[in-house]
Sequence to fold (496 residues):
Amino acid sequence: MSAHDQLVLCLCELTRLLWKLLLPLVLLCVLLVAVLVLLVLAVRLWLQSSRNARRAREGRPTVAFFHPYCNAGGGGERVLWCAIRALQNRYADINFVVYTGDLGVTGQQILDGARRRFNVVLPRPVRFVFLQHRVLVEPGLFPHFTLLGQSVGSVFLGWEALTELVPDLYIDSMGYAFTLPLFRYLGGCSVGSYVHYPTISTDMLSVVAERNPRFNNPDFISNSLFLTAFKLVYYCLFAVLYGMAGSCSDVIMVNSSWTLDHILSLWRSPNRTSVVYPPCDVGAFLDVPLEDDGDRKCHSIVSVGQFRPEKDHRLQIRAFKKVLDRRREGSGAGAALKLVLIGGCRNQEDEDRVLMLRGLCQELGVADRVEFKLNVSFGELKEEMSRATIGLHTMWNEHFGIGVVECMAAGKVILAHKSGGPKLDIVRPFEGRPTGFLADDEDGYAEAIEQILALPAESRLQIRRDARQSAARFSDEEFEACFLAATEPLMGTLEL
Fold:
């Protein structure tokens, strides 16, 4: 027998062997799928029986908000408390629960913090479910593949929440979209989401594709063609998974036009998606007097925002340094300047970032002109606002910008980033007149600050008046009306 005939014979035998194994393999796959389905059904039945027992015991439905950082003190937390307040005012016979990972405080301390920071008082108490494993969604735990790591971690954290308490209605108010299918398909809950910022966006893809170094695209990746291509594939695959998870939501609320565009392109659920601008305590700033500031001996530039990397406080400090240098070089320096950075620190990583920023101020020689105000009360915030001339914001593609609105309501001349929510929704002309300024780099910010300070006091006063009137679009009352209208289909699923 020739070698060719032997090869053909071997191939035939191998084919017959594989064919014989095919049926057992198919049966094994069917068996494994059946076991998996039965396991999922058993878990779902167990969770639903837990919910039914709780419902029978309490005699009323429960609405749960997933917000692991509810005590952080940022704009997202203000949305949470205003949303609960609106629902409590509308629906008296519903229990409200907040899943949180803030273990070092009591529930009453969290509510006291909401009152102190945001001037929000709830009509009734809420129940807090304290999650033990919030570290699973901390970015520091995943130095690489951070988006994927945090998303997988959120599933485990969501599972902890679900096993602690199974609600009738689940609302993700912090952007953990991968928890939505968990509560919908295993918990059998109606689910809704309020999206502050898409976990991934086409803008992030363009930053990587253009090999543009940023805080989420370090130099060693942007300088490598291979790593750039790999990260693009990773981002694209993640975007598909993110879209599938988000599309599980029965009702989708987004906080700005910018976020709406990205969520529509990723989650592809236009009939269930609406814009609900976040609540800004516009009324609380209306008593800040609008006075002529032409005779001030010191102009204060105030920045309001959490000390997160994307807020880009480094840009603020460097632009401020350029303004000081140019004023020293000019013939007339005019009034003195100072920069006040106000914000919350969520964790040790944020506190370390503040130390780094203080070091940058020392390095640039502006430490005596820059003040840091951390985790301030609402009263302190208003006091700093009343003394300021300019409100400063530097985050690229800020999803909305509550701090921007607050500055405008307080009658400050706002200088915000020329992108995202500030550009599309907030710093818009009022009756054809400007309500603020936009910039996108250090030189642009420095020039805009100089331009604002060079304006006649009367011109600045007119801009401040128009900005305050324009900010009325983002009041607490407007948010509550829009939020209640958006969530009405969800609340209608509850058996009251």
In short: The CA atoms of residues 150 and 202 lie 19 Å apart. The chain has a mean pLDDT of 89.
